[in-house]
Amino acid sequence: MTQTVAVLAFDQLSSFHLAVPCMVFGDAARSAGIREFQLQVCSENVRAIHSSSGFGIVPEYGLDALASADILIIPSWPHPAIQPSEALRAAMYSAKERGALIVGLCLGAYALAATGLLDNRQATTHWAYMEDFHQRFPMVQLQPDVLYQQDGNVVTSAGTAAAIDCCLFIVRQYLGAEQTNRLARLMVTAPHRSGGQAQFIELPVPERVGDKKLALLMDDIRADLAAPYSIDLLAQRMAMSRRTFTRHFKALTGQSVGQWLLEQRLRYCQTLLEQGRESIEQISIHAGFNTVISMRQNFRQRFGVSPSEWRKTFCEEGKG
Predict the structure, then answer these.
(1) Which of 3, 55, 113, 192 has the fewest Cβ atoms within 10 Å of its own Cβ atom?
(2) Segment 2-30, tens digit of pLDDT
(3) What is the pTM (predicted TM-score) of this model?
(4) What is the CATH topology of the domain spanning 212-314?
(5) How many other CB atoms are there within 10 angstroms of residue 219's CB atom?
(6) In terms of CATH architecture, what is 3-187?
(7) What are the domain boundaries of the chain?
């Protein structure tokens, strides 16, 4: 049975997030011999629209196409403060009520939330917008550490490449693993990354923490993560009491000493895993973990995947 996939286009849309569903449900699907999807790119007024990349797009369909769509995809929304028009709100709500699958890729979740489609539902979006999203839409049960999230007939994804994972997840639901794997191989991408996998978030500590002495201490720690560090020793180096040091550190970094140190060790593990030159046991030692078991447990808890899975994803020469 053919599923009609309507992808909404609008001014200042991300060309990448428009291209992802067009590739998955259109060009790549046809090349993989998949004929179960009929792709329609639509806009509110069927006119030339301007992408954020500087080129124009002329959709063939208007909002009336949403009335018969089985799957409605909203690519990354141009700005959190922009509200969907009343016509678009009505079209999305109507599609949801008749049971169509509604998908918000990356910041597309803002359009869904503004229409009330995510109230009391689990959803996700790009990690950099989590705080803003939560402030605007407190009724949404925001999931910060997933690649994509389905709640009923509504699906949302995290940022950028997670849109590919989300679209392949939808293909998998309709067609199963075999055809999805064939499509993913054609696209040279992973066939399945679970939605519960953590977003690969860069969390740099600011270079300037407002205290030159503390900044130098942090640099020294990063340069030798294999060494053991105690709060008492670090407080002594700062010429502070333990209590004063821990308060001072958290006030300037937003993290406890233990949280910050664990984060640095895990980020160093990421780097070494991606380089692919050392075993996981060696990496755990270089990063300062007492045991490889501790490293594996903390890594999975933080990133949602094992060190081996991280290496396979980011290093072609990776070894388990």
Answers:
(1) 55
(2) 999 999 999 988 888 899 999 999 999 99
(3) 0.64
(4) Arc Repressor Mutant, subunit A (1.10.10)
(5) 10
(6) 3-Layer(aba) Sandwich (3.40)
(7) 3-187, 212-314
- Give the contacts of 192 (CB within 8 A, at least 6 positions apart): 165, 168, 169, 172, 177, 180, 181, 184
C-alpha radius of gyration, the chain, whole number: 23
Token pair, residue 116, equals: 């009330």
| Separation CA 220–CA 225 (nearest Å) | 9
Using alpha carbons, list the distances in angstroms from residue 189 to 67, 184, 320: 32, 5, 20
> What is the rounded distance in angstroms from the CA atom of residue 165 to the CA atom of residue 186?
14
Report the length, in residues, of the chain. Answer: 320
Cα 9 from Cα 139, distance rounded (Å): 27
Q: What would the pLDDT profile of 221-249 be if each residue is shown by its tens digit?
A: 988 999 999 999 999 999 999 999 999 98
Q: Two tokens at 100?
A: 């169509």
